[in-house]
Amino acid sequence: MSIVHVGSMASLSSDLFYDILRRLDGATLANAACSCATFCSISREESLWENVCHSLWPSTNREDVKSLISSVGGFRKFYADCYPLIVNKDVPVVECDSYSEYPEEWLEGEYYGDIDELESILPSDFVSIVDVRYKDVVMCSKVIWGIPDSDGFNGWFYNCPFRIDLLNLSYNDGQHEDEVTLSVEDGLPPIFSIERERKDGKLWRELCDGIRLSWIIVNKKLKQAANLASWSPVGGQRHWPTDKDFLMRFGSILPAKDILPCQVVECILVMKFRVIHTEGEGSQTTLKLTELSMQLKDMGGSHVNGRNSLLVLKEALKSRRSKNYSEVLESCHLYSKAQSELKEEKMRNESRLDRLCILSGIAAFITFWYCIL
User: Fold this and answer.
1) Are 265 and 101 in contact (CB under 8 A)?
2) Torsion on CA atoms 188, 192, 197, 202, rounded to nearest 10
3) What b-and-e string marks burial along 300-311, b requiring 16 or more CB atoms within 10 Å of the CB?
4) 52 in Cβ contact with 25 (< 8 Å)
5) pLDDT tens across 267-289, in order?
6) Which residues, 6 or more positions from 195, have their beta carbon under 8 angstroms from its beta carbon?
7) What are phi and psi of 252, to 5 degrees?
8) Which of 106, 129, 274, 281 is most buried, by the most CB atoms less than 10 A from its CB?
């Protein structure tokens, strides 16, 4: 075997460097670009980042999505905007009294934000790029242009709770896509009975560890994009609402300053699976994806309407992001803590009000009999 000695990197072909870099994932490619001037120059090639995006988000391989990404700044910018997750640690302490009085003190125009700004935001400006993976298996890839059913009669969308249900969209052409399933062939552990799964929870643990969700929102007009998902589940509930259902929650904490009284809202992405087959009788363990939806809720647990949701989504595109997943979890925990404190304060106020009503009733009863006697 002969060994060729290389004097310097400059003597190597740039095509060789390109072939090396195109095999890297996005994070490694970004690190390699910082190592030397040659890698930095080659890493600016748009085709490298296009390959990275296709590998990470299969939906971006569609021709219409490629054109969209090119129009908002290219694949390199798209990756830089969407790979880091939204982090919002500025969770204010919301007092129960101020929270309940806030909508009454503000005029309608102030409560709903800048009306002129709202008129410049249209549901058709937004595009949803959604990808679901289980380990290395691509389960579902969908693209939604605009916000479904936002052109309803009398503008009901702006006043009704905001929600996007990915699996129950109405198609004008009448075509329905095949159902999304996950089986043992995809890497699921087999379960022989629901009762046994309820005890050991092996399927639930494997599902939470292996499932990954990406829900990217793109604003065509502003040429901005952000990933609203948390990659991994931040919560969930097994065997709910039935023994065969598994519900997982993804999402992020979005800024809503000057939009809502709580100043932050929770973007909740719900993914629900149902066991349709267990091992035995010639069948294998199979799960069916029955729900994949997005909704926004304020700190009080109320759904955000369509009008405010458009403003919140616009602000989310400019929010801070981080590649550190622990920061994302910390952001969610801070929000949950503030939400729990608000709920406890409401319960204490209701308890005080109940005691006051009881004492008032007793005082009225004693006064009544005192006057009679």
Assistant:
1) no
2) -30
3) beebbbbbbbbb
4) yes
5) 999 999 999 887 765 678 889 99
6) none
7) -160, 165
8) 129
